[in-house]
Amino acid sequence: MSADSNSGNKSFWPVKTALKEKIIVLYDALLSGDQPWLDNGHYWDDFFLLKVNSKYLLEELERTYIDKPAVLKPQLNTVFDQCLIFVNSTHRIRQLNAYYTICVLIYAISRVNQRTGFGYPALDFLCGSEGVDNKFETLIESVNHTFLIDESFSGSTLLKNAAFDVILTCCTTMLNINENMLMDYMMANVNLFDSITQLLIRFPASHGYDVCLLLALLLQYHKYDTSNTYIIRFSVFDDEVALTSLAQVIGSSLNEYNKAYDIERTANESSSWWNSLTTFNYVQSMINNRRILRLKNNEHLPVIILAITIIFIIHFCNKHDERTANQYMMEDDEKGNPRLCPLYPSTLQGNGLLDMSSNMEWADIEQRIKYVQIGGIYSPSDCIPRQHLAIIIPFRNREYQLKILLRHLHPFLQRQKRSYRIFVVEQFGNGTFNKGLIMNIAFNHASKISAPVFNCFMFHDVDLIPENDYNVYECDKHGPRHLAPAVDELRYFLMYNDLIGGALAVTKHQFMKANGWSNLYWGWGFEDDDMNHRLRHAGYRVSRPPNSVGRYKMIRHEKQVPAFNRYEILSRWLRYSSDGIQQLSTLDYSIISIETHALYTHILVNFTRLATKTIDHLLEELPNVK
After folding, report:
1. Domain-wise residue ranges, the chain
2. What are the pLDDT digits (tens) for 353-367?
3. Domain named Galactosyltransferase C-terminal: which ranges (predicted)?
4. Is 481 helix (H, G, I), strand (E, B) or coil?
């Protein structure tokens, strides 16, 4: 036994030396333009079995790129394709080396393209112009899969480190993260958010520092008018276990930083945090699994920690606000009827990216929207509708907004399997706008329709587009439901608990009990605050979906002329029993036309400032009420 053991020890080092030399031999053959894999069926198995010599490979890639770019390009394309195969290998060493090879390839190409940036030419040189989107999608999905490997598997920690190396290398190919084309692939694959946050659930959170760094990078990215999907996902993140772990990581990071800060400052390092991310020393330190120590001791770490901490605090403040603002997801209390449309059907998609372009013609929109009957009517054919919804949209001089809204709203409601009809009510002429009055007129008309009888009425602003179809457009039997608590212009937060503007769903009984909208707000503003007082005085508490679901994007527009006496009118809201839907018959207005279009029913009404003369006296007779 002893002799065999000694014999084994004598042969170990020569073999290891040979292996070191063999990987360089394979690199040289590859970079010379040869195709040794054609004659050797095990070439790639051997290639990825050997430890990556990152320094040698990087230097040779840069040299060959300058001397023989035409030779290098097809070779790199082949290596990259093979890396994508082996990162999904069941052989852990080959999988690990495939990840490390990708790191070196991406970093090498980014170095030689520093002036021109990491754009299409660099991508073409790296992996070929054909199927580049699919290749990076495959790479990121492989990383996601690696992140979710069970910790009990041998080598899982090293593999996850390597996967983080790949993503961090992709994120730091350019100093300006907004000019990094590879970030587009990160934004397109939101599964990456799920996988990295899942790492936080597994105690101990050994990859917590990597998650913090990666989140900080992803949350910084902004391009044109495109929403950052990671900001959206993180702002609605509600996994308490993962968030608790994130808090522990942040606390640990701050503690480590406090210990090392003075030492690091006196060392007077010349490299900044961004430079450390984009130098070969950083790439090499990642491959040697020393990146965590380097980042913890870096003077720019507080910037990362602060960014994550602020988002973290805002998140929990948001959760507290949701409880005080009566925000909850509606529950399906009629599951016993299998023929009834489910409250949350399987066709829902959650948050979606919205197309806010306004240059489409009506004919193009009508051709795109399917299954809608004339007048903007739709009802699901595969189940019994839960409610019949009348959507009332007050409108004036905003045709481009109406196009965008209807282009999104019809598919949105069809995925929810709602039965609905869309009414667009427009005030004729250029007189002072009275939103409350035209909404009362539209309600009065819709409530008289008998086929079907509407049992839910939605008052919907034309400039708000719903983002999440889990925000079901349905009335709540417990009380009025405000569906738009989180608007992008308001940073996706409910500004105050009495806010009900944007999208409000009420039953006929709820609406009539509050006597509908006030007819006395001439000009923009406060008619919704007035309605809130009415609903509360009628004994209702308005409910809302959570901010994570009740998300809306506002179409930009010029501000309207505000009601000059809106504060005075609001202070006299107790007049509501004498100013509302029940007084409509006493007002001087006329319906010019009711026309059915392909996607909506158009109600055109006409009145002047004298329309409400029979109730104007109410503003003088009642005392102010705060």
Report:
1. 17-316, 362-566+589-612
2. 788 887 889 999 999
3. 481-558
4. strand
